[in-house]
Structures
1.
Amino acid sequence: MVLEGLFAYTGGRAFDAARPCVVFLHGAQHDHSVWILQSRYLAHHGYAVLALDLPGHGRSRGPAATSVEAIADRVARALASLANPRFLLAGHSMGSLVVLELAQRLADRVTGVALCAAAFPMRVSDALLAATREDPPAALDMINVWSHSVSIAPFAVRPGNPAPGFNVVWQNLRLMQRIAHVNGAAVLPTDFAACNAYARGLEAARALRCPALFVLGAADQMTPPRAAQPLLEAIADKTAVTLPDTGHSMMAENPDGVRRALESFAARIFATAAA
């Protein structure tokens, strides 16, 4: 379905506004498909699901927004049109920063937030920022090596997962290359610059009026668990789950671990809201 120009994957089921709704927001140079396993599972187990393509990503129209705040403004307008009274907002990496902003814009309708691979500040090295502008293929290689745990052996000849012919590193690289091909070369530097420039994280975290779940990867090299500590300290009602042997691309590396954490959190917060 499409909401105000933003494409939303509904998990293989028709969207039902009567169900509790989980909204999934992807990270930089990605689209809704990074959430495919978790979103499809929840859609078939009692939830309405909206896995969005952010502005200028995947099937969503327009250029990529140049700031986290601008992304949140656009998503807030799209969600405001829905009849669902309550949302769980789940964001990965850059998407977790958007969730913090979005929770303020839709404060009366957000039941909880799930921050996956979150960090604040979400600094990007000068070398990587420069590469996103001047040498995108090199930037994508760096991102994909750092986005996966060492045990995956990025770009090794053996599969990055036990299933024959399935390699999460190459799959992620191909997705990022497709975003560049379909949506343009400007998406990569725009996204990473937006993460690097975002300064309102602690302010937004302190303003949260709902429970928060942190899902962290113990082997995350892009946003290591310690980088989430300022946000953890700023949020009063929070739960943290650290997934062992899991890198930044946690939804692919440890899909069941992420799914279990989200499912448990969703059941708890929606039951509390209903009561």
2.
Amino acid sequence: MAELEIRREENVAWLTLNRPAARNSLSPALLRLLAQACNELAEDEDVRAVVLRAQGGVFSAGADLMGFMAGMHGDDPEAAADIGRKAAEALLALPQVTIAAIEGHCVGGGLVLAASCDLRWAESRSWFSAPELDLGVPLAWGGMERLVALLGDTMACELVFTCRRLGVEEALGHGLISQRIDGDFDSIIGEQVAQIVAKPLGVLRTTKRQLQGIRSGSFCASADAAALLAALRAPESQRAAQQYFARRAAKAARRNVEDTAPTNKEIAE
């Protein structure tokens, strides 16, 4: 059984952590597969969004410590310790919109992977923690940088130094996740991902490049003019604009009909 399932469905790639018996703990082999999958998807022009999720109702219990301890006794222990960073950075580098679809607990290295995505959507029972200091190790894999970027210095320090859990409402309030999902998780995720990938490819990629530039400190607003002109000339963007104005016109027409329709009192008179 593959520890990472990869499924392409129209314009979406679904990457599923598949170690449910181990609560989707992150083995070195799983992280290598994830990094490899991301590197391959980066070259796929047909994929507009990448969704990271997990089997079994638990996003991830964090690093598979026994698996990593075995790697520490190999020929290159530093490379073994660094594989999680490579997987997280492969996620960060993807040109597609990336979404972590989180069920259940999201712990340690799992939190680092989720934080490496553009969006994090969590179902109502989810919770989050970084217990590394309680385990006697630092938060690694670039996780501290990502948490500070998402939560700010103070809240990231609170989470990491205290090792306490954040429930879904607190995670939402602090901006760790963008959405709490109640109801049929799979259906709602599918519908919302479909809304994203329906947008023109060019503007999705441009927006992702802007985000990556902002995150790396290399963003240059002067490039926006060329990107805007390119979008205005692109057939897919032109069709999107036509559809947008058509919807606006239809809504305005409905409002006009409602405004001019006689009331029940006027009909009676």
